[in-house]
Amino acid sequence: MVIGLVGDGEVENAQGILDAAGVTVPTGDLVNGVYDEAGNFYQMPEQVVGDPDNVVVEDDDAVEAEIAKGEDGEMDEEELERRREEKGKGVLKSGDTIKVRARLSDRGGPDVVIMLSKEQSVRVLIRKIQDEIGIPGKGKVRIAYLGKILKEGETLLAQGWREGHVVNALVFQ
Questions:
Q1: Can you tell me the distance from the alpha carbon of 61 to that of 64, in angstroms, rounded to the nearest whole number?
Q2: How many other CB atoms are there within 10 angstroms of residue 118's CB atom?
Q3: 3-class DSSP state for residue 124?
Q4: Within 13 Å of residue 78, how many CA atoms lie on the same side as its CB?
Q5: Worst-scoring range by mean pLDDT, 43-52, 113-122, 140-149?
Q6: Residue 115: what are its φ and ψ, rounded to 5°?
Q7: Between these two residues, 26 and 139, which has the higher pLDDT value?
Q8: What does DSSP assign to residue 85?
Q9: pLDDT at res. 77
Q10: Exposed/middle/buried for 159, CB within 10 Å: 0-12, 13-18, 19+?
């Protein structure tokens, strides 16, 4: 957290956190290590403290466009749109959207409300729920409605779901 604040130029806030934790940085550089209040030394690896310098950032839309090119080199718009919808990045039309309320099995907190197109599959709903609640990569979510586990490749409406009803998001970690 301190490293992120320093990177954003918020040195005063970073110093406040270090002071509250009782940590001192004698050289002013976290790579050279820090000391706690008891005088214990903690070495900080450079890869933890610094930003990587050999990472290539790719534009998702450009990658999708390259994948969606047909045999003749032209983009197949339907394929590109299908991939975007599958990832939950498709454009939702105002008359085409539904609100899906999902009750999570792993917590007693408030339900999660997700905006979804009527034509989007349960797989898109699962991905949006995972993004919304921050489930780690190994976490699995299954959607249940009226006691049945829904098929990920089909839409909610095709499986009997009615607007305004709550689905159960079964979270496995």
A1: 5
A2: 15
A3: helix
A4: 1
A5: 43-52
A6: -85, 130
A7: 26
A8: H
A9: 62
A10: middle
Closest C-alpha among 101, 88, 110, 104 to residue 161: 101
CB atoms within 10 A of CB 106: 14
Q: Predicted confidence band at 149 (pLDDT cuts at 50, 70, 90)?
A: very high
Model confidence band, residue 145 (pLDDT cutoffs 50, 70, 90): very high
Whether the CB-CB separation of 159 and 122 falls below 8 Å is answered with: yes
How many Å is the Cα radius of gyration of the chain? 23
The residues that bridge with 155 in the sheet, in sequence order, are 121
**Can you tell me whether residue 167 is helix, strand or coil?**
strand
E strand spans, 26-160:
34-35, 41-42, 97-104, 112-117, 140-145, 148-149
CA 48, 15, 42: angle at the middle one, nearest 5? Answer: 40
Segment holding 171, helix H or strand E = strand 166-172
Give the dihedral sign, CA 67/72/78/81.
positive
Tell the residue number behind the tokens 């921050």, with chain if given: 134
**Edge to edge, what strands does the sheet with 140-145 contain?**
112-117, 97-104, 166-172, 140-145, 148-149
